[in-house]
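Re: beginner question about structure tokens

> Can someone show what the tokenized structure looks like for a real chain? I only ever see the sequence side.

Sure, here's an example I had lying around. Input first:
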Amino acid sequence: MRNTLSKLILGIAVICSDSATMAADSNPPEYEIARTTSKITINGKFDEAAWFAAPAVGKFQFPWYESGAREQSIVKLLWDDDRLYIASLCEDRHITALHEKHDEPVATDDCIEIMLAPNAARPAFYFNVEWNVIGGYVDGHRPNGPNAPRVEWNAEGVELAGSFIGTLNDDADEDEYWCVEVAIPWQNFESHMASNPPLAGAEFRANFNRHGGVTNEQYSQWSAADTPTPAFHVPHRFGLLRLSSETVPFAAQE
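And the corresponding structure tokens:
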């Protein structure tokens, strides 16, 4: 497994602990999600050719950085008629992961999340799924924006599996990274999408946010927020995701 994950890192990015912070007044990023026609097995290994061929979303930003190592995150996405797939790889010298059950306080662990607005014209109407490396995840829904109460929502059919290089919950040594592979069925959002299955060209507003654990607690994001203190629920700063007709690892034959 170490060899597979090392090849993945080398193949998609160089993890850089001193990446510059994106200015909060810059345009939110955009990303084209490649389509996969091959089966993706959710096992935390990222060993399908489609994952190697898919591009990463880009470096995470640290808009509230104060001190400590900026530990980078790599995220890739794929899609098919049934599900949205997410591969997350997180550099981490001290991995904290204590919560294994649904809706436990995963935010106190090292974790990462997607916030997704299925209608790009309504970024303040969004869902979020947040996970750690041992299978714990939290799901939520904000139909009225970040300043209104969340609504009870349980995503159906979510699959996730993780792996790591290091030791969990032990600061006596230094770890390397943790990885989680996630699949979220489109049916969870179908009443808010133009069609299900979705079509190539469909757009969503989204962000990816990472919480640090107990040691070297950091807050980082794909699209940097513009708040003076850490706040992930900032939908006007969500980036744009677009479903591509391009298939990976190879384009469909004419």
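Each token stands for a local structural state, so reading them left to right follows the chain. The domain at 2-10+27-248 is CATH 2.60.40.1190 (Immunoglobulin-like).
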